[in-house]
Structure formats: C-alpha cells, structure tokens
Amino acid sequence: MDRSALTDPLPGWLDAPAGWAALDPVSDRIRGVVAALPLPPGLRDALHGLWLGHPLHPALAQVPLGCWLSAAVLDLTGAPTPAVRRLTALGLAAAPPTLLAGWVDWADLPPAHRRTGLVHALGAAAATGLHAAALWARCRGHDRAGRRLALTGLGLVTAAATLGAHLTYRQGAGAAHAEAVPRVAPPGWHQVGAVDEFPRDRPVRRELGEVPVVVVRGAEGFDVLADRCTHMAGSLSDGRVEDGCVRCPLHGSRFRLADGKPVRGPATAAQPRFDTRVLSDRLEVRAVAG
Predict the structure, then answer these.
(1) Residue 284: phi, psi to the nearest 5?
(2) I want to staple 145 with a disulfide (CB 3.0 to 4.6 A). Which of 53, 137, 190, 290 is the partner?
(3) Which residues pair with 207 in a beta bridge?
(4) Per-domain residue ranges for the chain?
(5) How far apart, in whole angstroms, are the C-alpha atoms of residue 193 and residue 182?
(6) What is the pLDDT of residue 290?
C-alpha cells in the first residue's frame, strides 16, 4: 500500500477526476448547451447566488440530501411507507433547481475543475434517478425493491457530495479568491504611481507590496480594487471599465468600482477595495480593514 495514502488527509480518488482529460469533449459539449440555455441574466445571476453572496447550489443541495437521508432513517426504523414516499418525492422536487444551479456554476469553471464537476454532477444525477425509481417501486407496492434503490442512491449522492465539497474547498471552485487581500496587504499608505500615469477609465495594474491591485481613474477621482477576481482569480486590469464597473476578462463578472460589489455573475463575492488619496501628484492607497 502507498504510505502517502495513509498520511494524506484527502484520498487520491478525490483529486483523480481533475486529470481525466478524456472527459473534455463531453464537457465542452455540455458547457455549450448550458451556455446556450435561454436564461435571462437576472435568473442566471440568481442561480449563481449573486443575491446570496456565495454560490446557491450548495445551499439548494441540502434539501434533496436532507430529504433522502431522513427517508432512509425512517425506512430503517420501520416508519410508515407514506412518510418515506413524501420525503423521497420532496427531494426529487428539489433536485431540478439544485442541478440547474450547479450546471450554471460549472459552465464557468476552468477545464480541470469542469472534469471534477462533471463526475460530481453525473453522480448526483444518477442518484436522483435511483430515488425516482425507488419512489416508483414503492408506489407500486414493491417496498423492498424501493428500499434497496433508495439506499443505493443515498450512497451515491453522498459520494457525489463529498467530491463536490472537495471541488469547492480544496480545488477552490466555489471559494472567493481575494478574501485574504486585506490581511496580507501591507498596512498604511503606499504610493503606487504618479497621477499622470493613470489614463481615464482604463484599468491599470499596480503592486501594493506583493498584492496586485487595479487602479481606475474616473471623472471624480480614483477607485482601487484587488486585481484578482474573486471568482477564478482573473486579472481585472486586463478587463475593461463599463458603466462604473470593471469587467473581468475571463468570465464577464462585473464589479462596481465604488465599493467592489458584484453586479453581474458568475462572481458572488465583492472585490476588496482600497482607500485612495493624492499627495504631491502621487497616488497613495491603503487597504480597507474587513
């Protein structure tokens, strides 16, 4: 046995799907389908969780997972079959919006993350199918077959959820990528350049210690945000300024320059912002404490 498998807190199988390049042709096709869904921007942003401040999919997933786990507990303790059927049906009703929110997030991930996400999604979809079959069997009076199908589906959805959590927290697919900026930026005021170095309404990258920031000079002064997008760490200085916002070049997230808040997904977390002042024609910036 590989000794590293005993000491590594994360089993290798959780990382393995990220390297399965053979999934890319299927992934690209599905991504095209998801991108072409006729969803209005407001609904797509709602599915991303823009209104919530973090991805919506994990929150929605609690409903089918909770219902199916509760149904299994009732089933194993000899509870009446109608109660088990109702919980199974409620989980199935919650599955479509949960899966849709997950696919919308998945389509804006880089290739390695999409591979892991595809395996996670296929496992969740298969588990949903097993619970649908379990409900059908129970409604026809085949409780034993329904129990077997449901328990198999519960095991599969648990494995899929574990892989999804790994994708989110270990691989960073759903975590904000700029939360540490206020803590690692050097304290106090620091010069980032002469005022004349910053053209109007064009993002310019500067360094604050080891922290990259994007500087935008507007009609009423300067706005400075963390340069790395909270969604997938794209460089905002390579983007463009639109209607008082800076747009990330990777996936089109838009952040309001005045406060860093996202106004268009897939990003859901705000960009850390910096205070600004001009002394002797030099622009100085200071991190804003969280």
Answers:
(1) -120, 145
(2) 137
(3) 212
(4) 3-170, 181-287
(5) 20
(6) 59
Report the distance separating Cα 184 and Cα 179, nearest Å: 10
Question: What pLDDT shows up at residue 210?
Answer: 87
Q: How are beta strands 262-264 and 221-226 bridged, if at all?
A: unpaired
End-to-end CA distance of the chain: 46
Identify any residues that bridge with 225 across adjacent strands, giving them in sequence order. 214, 273
- Please tell me whether residue 245 adopts helix, strand or coil conformation: strand
Alpha carbon 126 to its chain's center: 22
Reply yes or no: is the peptide bond before residue 38 cis, omega within 30 of 0.
Answer: no
| Integer angstrom CA distances of residue 206 from 106, 141, 190 | 31, 68, 11
The total number of residues written for the chain in this structure = 290
- State the Cα–Cα distance between residues 19 and 277, nearest whole angstrom: 47
Q: What is the pLDDT of residue 81?
A: 86
Fold for the domain defined by 181-287: Rieske Iron-sulfur Protein (2.102.10)
pLDDT score, position 8: 59
pLDDT of residue 174: 85
Considering Cα of 125, then 131, then 132, then 134, what sign does the dihedral take? positive
Of the candidates 98, 88, 45, 96, the residue with the CA atom closest to the CA atom of residue 67: 88
Q: 45 φ, ψ to 5°?
A: -65, -35
Q: Which of 30, 285, 243 is nearest to 272 (CA)?
A: 285
- Series of mean pLDDT values for 10-residue runs along the chain (290 residues): 50 88 97 94 94 94 97 90 94 97 96 96 97 96 94 96 93 87 90 94 93 94 95 94 95 95 95 94 87
List helix spans (H) across 107-214: 111-139, 143-165, 181-184
Cα 64 from Cα 68, distance rounded (Å): 6
- 286 strand-pairing partners: 275
Are the C-beta atoms of 199 and 219 separated by less than 8 Å? no
